[in-house]
Amino acid sequence: MLTFDSTSHVYRWNSRRIPSVTQTLEPLFDWSSIPPGILEHKRQVGIAVHHAIHLELSGGVDPATIHPDCLGYFEAWQRFRDENKFEPILTEFQVTSDELGEYYRYAGTLDQYGLLQGQPALIDWKTSMLLNIEAVGAQTAAYLKALKRMGLASLSDRRFALKLSKAGLYRLDPYRRLDDDWQRFVYQRKRWNAHASA
Hints:
By secondary structure, this protein is of the alpha+beta class. It has one domain (2-197): Lambda Exonuclease, Chain A, CATH 3.90.320. The chain has helices spanning 21-24, 36-58, 68-83, 133-149, 178-197; strands at residues 2-5, 10-13, 16-18, 87-97, 106-116, 119-126, 158-164, 170-175. The chain has a five-stranded mixed β-sheet, sandwiched between helices. Helix 2 (36-58) packs across helix 3 and helix 4 (133-149) packs across helix 5 (178-197). The two termini are 27 Å apart.
């Protein structure tokens, strides 16, 4: 029932367009101070890093094939995985939920869900250290709620933003206020419908 057009980045449920988690939360991200060329370059780096990580988990990737602009981020992810004994269960996994009712259904593709030092955790990779903390909290809450709705996770599972740096370092930031983060997402999801029907 859920389909995704990667070219237009459009999710549909039973042929009806529904917003992605990131589209829903777009008003919380302000990129106006970043020149368009730099912003696009960062976006492409993020896509490439995600792809490299996915290949690594799908059977391996030759680091020599990774662009120099992306290699440090990839090495940061490897360091995180090894130092934290992270065992992926789901990677680049599409989710959907009607937690708010069918009219407010949403979808998205989470980065990773797995065992972090033996405990279930949802991990969202970021290749920028400059982030809207509240927006990322809402993003991970929406993914976890969807996983729970699909019977694949518990609401007690932990959520983290994994911030990867070009220097090969990482920072793992936890999100502990699920109710607050979820309500922030709910507000933006309802706003999306209001604008779409205006």
